[in-house]
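Just curious. Invent one:
>
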Amino acid sequence: QERLKREYHSIRQTNTEISTEFMQRFLRLDRFLRAAVGTEEEHAKNFQ
């Protein structure tokens, strides 16, 4: 989890990384962030 938080700040494709590897890494990070934020309803409720 901490690794994913660090990765969020440096999400860019490396010179040695093919686009499908980058996309897999990006989608893994996306799933983590969505789980951390919660649903849209939960998010809206927290900011009311």
Helices lie at 2-8, 19-37, 40-46.
